[in-house]
Write a structure and sequence with these properties.
Blueprint: H1 2-17, E1 44-48, E2 54-56, E3 60-67, E4 74-79, E5 87-88, E6 106-111, E7 124-129, E8 137-138, E9 143-145
Parallel strand pairs: 2-9
Antiparallel strand pairs: 1-3, 3-6, 4-5, 4-7, 7-8
């Protein structure tokens, strides 16, 4: 008799743990959506890092950006501050594999390696068309730690 009670209790708990109701909202975190819309006059819009994040040297991060300027590739540059020339984080220009429609979000994975990045108080990522550097744009400032 005790076994049947335990079985009923276990099945009831499993039902409630699964939610039992298909209309209930999911508790899983949602993936952020970004507005990568940008005009040709602006050229590039970097939406992530947005600013305020903390990254470690050696960490691979996603740089998310929109582009409205056609080019042969795009530089992904780490800058210590707004006036710094910066250091390329990729060996080759980033290829969009599509058109720069000013709406699509592109993601470039870059590694903040010790050879390119020093531990500083702040940094930013610049995305710039390879042949039209003046159309580039910076991310928000973030923190880099050892």
């Amino acid at each position: 008799m005790k076994f049947s009670h335990a079985l009923i209790l276990a099945s009831s708990l499993a039902f409630f743990a699964c939610g039992g109701d298909d209309d209930s909202p999911s508790a899983a975190p949602s993936t952020p959506t970004y507005d990568c819309s940008v005009s040709e006059a602006t050229g590039v819009k970097v939406v992530y890092p947005a600013g305020g994040e903390t990254f470690k040297i050696g960490e691979t991060i996603d740089v998310i950006f929109g582009v409205a300027v056609e080019d042969n590739g795009y530089r992904i540059i780490f800058k210590k501050n707004a006036s710094d020339q910066g250091i390329d984080l990729l060996d080759e220009p980033y290829d969009l594999n599509g058109s720069a429609d000013g709406k699509t979000c592109y993601t470039a994975k870059v590694k903040l390696d010790a050879e390119s990045v020093e531990a500083t108080m702040t940094g930013a990522i610049r995305v710039a068309p390879y042949n039209k550097q003046n159309k580039g744009n910076n991310s928000g400032l973030f923190i880099v730690k050892e």
